[in-house]
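Lab notebook, bench 4. Still working through the backlog of constructs that have no structural model yet. Next entry is a single chain of 238 residues. Request: give me the structure tokens for it.
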Amino acid sequence: MKTRAPVTTPQGHEVSSTNQEVGEFLAKAKSLPLRQGEDRGRLVFAMDATMSRQPTWDQALAIQGQMFEETARIGGLDVQLVYFRGFNECMASRWVSDPKGLAKLMSGIACRGGHTQIRKVLQHVKLEMERARVHAAVYVGDAMEEDVDLLCARAGEIGLLGVPIFMFQEGYDARAESAFREIARLTKGAYCRFDLNAAGQLRALLAAVAVYAAGGRQALEHYGRKNRPATLLLDQLR
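Model written out:
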């Protein structure tokens, strides 16, 4: 079972994600192509629910549960929740169109000890894409305990199918960062480290991904112009 020590500066202050990283993430999201001619977006939202995430789990669920509210204005979004934990437990929910329904699904998940199962998540995304179009996937985790080459092989296949994966890393595990960045690159998605102490920042990032999945690049650009919190964030990053 993996463990994680708090990340602090020599003075004992917790380290948060940098403005540059968040700016690069938003810029990458805006560079994605606009999709046309489709009614609703489909987003796979995957989470590491192993024990190392327990200290911040409730806070993360609260923030993630709010990320889809903005999509109602642009036609909505269907979301499938995927998570892994424990011994070989990797589960996928039904597709949910109601944000309240998704929040309810999330609230029923508790962390359990175990190793990461990111390869299973990637395989699931690939299978879902073969059944029906998936417009984006989000992964939130803090570690990587698998063969990175196997993960990258699967990510490359997903990239060929045209599904960008947005990799969010909690904490500063170097091995996880290297793998997450490569998965994002191979799928033409984006990588960002986050700090749950900056809840507004993470909420804005997750909402931006949800808006992109629901309406494409044009919707994301509109969201950035009209949504005051997003505008303030973008102004701060310039």
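Notes after review: Residues 199-226 form the longest helix (28 residues). The two ends are 41 Å apart (CA to CA). Flag for follow-up if needed.
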